[in-house]
What we know:
By secondary structure, the chain is of the alpha/beta class. The protein has one helix at 9-15; strands spanning 2-5, 22-23, 42-45. It contains one helix and three strands.
Amino acid sequence: LTVVDCNSEKTRKKVGILPGAVLIDDETFTASELPSDKSTKLVFYCGGPG
């Protein structure tokens, strides 16, 4: 299981980060940041729009 934190840097500073999560930036994200094993389950965490 891989947890992917999709929150903005501003939100991470406000609410914190999830230990062990892969942090992605929506402006520079590439698929290479995700696990190469395609059977890995992914959970995406974000604060939603706004």
